[in-house]
Design brief:
Number of domains: 2
Number of helices: 14
CATH topology of the largest domain: Catalase HpII,  Chain A, domain 1
Shape: globular
Radius of gyration: 24 Å
Pfam families: Catalase, Catalase-rel
Distance between the termini: 47 Å
CATH architecture of the largest domain: Beta Barrel
Protein name: Catalase
Biased composition (Basic and acidic residues): 523-542
Helix content: 25-40%
InterPro entries: Catalase (IPR018028), Catalase_AS (IPR024708), Catalase_clade1/3 (IPR024711), Catalase_core (IPR011614), Catalase_immune_responsive (IPR010582), Catalase_sf (IPR020835)
CATH class of the largest domain: Mainly Beta
Family: Belongs to the catalase family.
Largest sheet: 10 strands, antiparallel
Length: 542
């Protein structure tokens, strides 16, 4: 016990059973209910819905996550091709198939954990949320700069954010809370390698990648689908900061990235990204040692190359920060015809959570705000009425008295159905499942460590050493165990730097329910130390 009589961090609780708000004991807090291991989630996920909708309402009025942000207007121009082939081979989405058409966009950048006035030098993933105002209505692509995430099941998202947010007692962010969560989730190790390296602090938004992170589907006119991931590569290249560089900038300016973006657009130096996709056939790919729907993993670019599909340019600053940037609202469920959902469990959970958050934070009529409304050619026409802050009726039919459908009195009617719609076959036993293909939890993290430049690897080790010194011994030992299983040099350097007994860490048994990596698996090697097709590295900011 501490002098204050409080239990030390890391000490186990006994006799406490997790329940829902209704008092029901929770026997599985790790997995959504789904149709089979890879099937879609089901609407009767009461435990998840209670958990995620309460989480969405934890803060007012700023966002619970991604509160600190800046944004700009611009346009997306499709090439009409995906790689060397016509885009229509894969999708009927006009925003991707119509070459040369400039689709208006609004792009919001953000940090994740900090509040609205937190510094932009924080070590944190960066949000990369785009609202495409297409001729067929809005398409929201809500992603991050890094191409992976910490968890692969949305039911864990509130726990993850709670662990990463400040301590509810001290109101300080504590390293032990972050790693207490991570040590129980080996799937997080890949993201840890990214976010604790210089890639965890982008130099600014103009020199930063974007990614959907989640897997979607493209659907063509024949009703055929492929899996797809979206990426955005900055034409200016990628630049990141080391911890000392970030500290120096933060001492002068907590909003340096906002200033950099605004000033660049103001002087006509418009930032540009090339939008690319990776495409994979729509099946479970047993030849891979990870599930392609697992968002903690990257698709190898030598097998699934980045194919250019268009360019994205930002050329106008908002006229008012609150009216546009702060009230802008995005949702992963906002898709256009030709782009569809995959069974990615994080995507399915986010699709409920994101729009639910906006209805709570901004109000049920948030889509009537100009920054969120679809463009003129795709004006909304619904039978939805009233609610807080209604200031116009969404179009309606020929007869304003009819706010229902169907009607013979001039009301709205359904749109024509596609000639061939997409109807995937789904069957399986309803239950709570975790992926059984977990060997890559360690392999991709180890590959990332070996792929980093020396200066990136040094910065990663230095950051983790500092963190481990702040963690209770049980957490520090387990994290070294994880790092060593990713790469022996990785674990050894962290242990030596933090003064942790490596042999004691290596002697730990696997966590219950996590068998650990297969130490006898073949280790992939490369002639130049970097995976083919994935040699992109960052530059240190000057």
């Amino acid at each position: 016990m501490s002098d204050s009589g409080q239990k030390q961090p890391g000490a186990p609780e006994t006799g406490k059973i997790l329940t829902t708000r209704q008092g029901h004991p929770v026997s599985d807090n790790q997995s959504l209910r789904s149709v089979g291991e890879r099937g879609p989630a089901t609407l009767e996920n009461y435990q998840f819905i209670e958990k995620i909708t309460h989480f969405d309402r934890e803060r007012i009025p700023e966002r619970v996550v991604h509160a600190r942000g800046t944004a700009a207007h611009g346009y997306f121009e499709a090439y009409g091709k995906i790689g060397d082939e016509p885009a229509a081979k894969y999708t009927r989405a006009k925003v991707l198939t119509q070459a040369g058409v400039k689709t208006p966009v609004f792009l919001r950048f953000s940090t994740v954990i900090g509040g609205k006035e937190s510094p932009e030098t924080a070590r944190d993933p960066r949000g990369f949320a785009i609202k495409f105002k297409t001729v067929d209505g809005n398409w929201d692509l809500v992603g991050n700069n890094l191409k992976v995430f910490f968890i692969r099941d949305a039911i864990k998202f509130p726990d993850m954010i709670h662990a990463f947010k400040p301590d509810p007692v001290t109101n300080r962010q504590e390293a032990w809370r972050f790693f207490d969560f991570v040590m129980h989730h080996p799937e997080s190790l890949h993201m840890v390698a990214w976010v604790k390296s210089p890639w965890g602090i982008p130099a600014d938004y103009r020199h930063m990648q974007g990614s959907s992170v989640n897997t979607y589907k493209l659907v063509n006119d024949q009703g055929q689908a492929v899996l797809v991931k979206f990426s955005f590569e900055p034409k200016l290249g990628v630049k990141n900061l080391t911890s000392p560089q970030a500290a120096e900038i933060q001492a002068r300016d907590v909003g340096h990235a906002t200033r950099d973006l605004y000033d660049a657009i103001d002087r006509g130096d418009y930032p540009e990204w090339e939008m690319c996709v990776q495409i994979m056939s729509d099946d479970d790919h047993p030849e891979l040692d990870f599930d392609p729907l697992d968002d903690t993993k990257r698709w190898p670019e030598d097998q699934f190359p980045l194919l250019p599909v268009g360019r994205l340019v930002l050329d106008k600053n908002p006229n008012n920060f609150f009216a546009e940037t702060e009230q802008s609202a995005f949702g992963t469920g906002v898709l256009v015809d030709g782009i569809d959902f995959s069974d990615d469990k994080m995507l399915q959970g986010r699709t409920l959570s994101y729009s639910d958050t906006q209805r709570y934070r901004v109000g049920p009529n948030y889509l009537q705000l100009p920054v969120n409304a679809p463009q003129e050619r795709a004006r909304a026409a619904t039978n939805q009425r009233d609610g807080q802050m209604t200031y116009h009726v969404d179009g309606g039919g020929e007869n304003p008295h009819v706010n229902y459908e169907p009607s013979a009195m001039g009301g709205l009617r359904e749109a024509p159905k596609p000639a061939k719609d997409y109807h995937p076959f789904v069957e399986g036993h309803l239950g709570r499942y975790q992926t059984t293909r977990t060997g890559d939890d360690y392999r991709q993290a180890g590959e990332r460590y070996r792929t980093f430049e020396n200066w990136e690897r040094d910065d990663l080790i230095a950051n983790l050493v500092e963190d481990m010194k702040q963690c209770p011994e049980p957490i520090a030992l387990r994290m070294v165990w994880h790092f060593w299983h990713c790469d022996e040099d990785y674990g050894r350097r962290v242990a030596e730097g933090a003064g942790i007994d490596l042999e004691k860490a290596k002697a730990l048994p696997p966590l219950p329910g996590h068998p650990g990596p297969n130490r006898h698996r073949d280790r992939v090697t490369y002639t130049d130390g970097k995976p083919e097709g994935d040699r992109r590295s960052s530059q240190a900011a000057e």
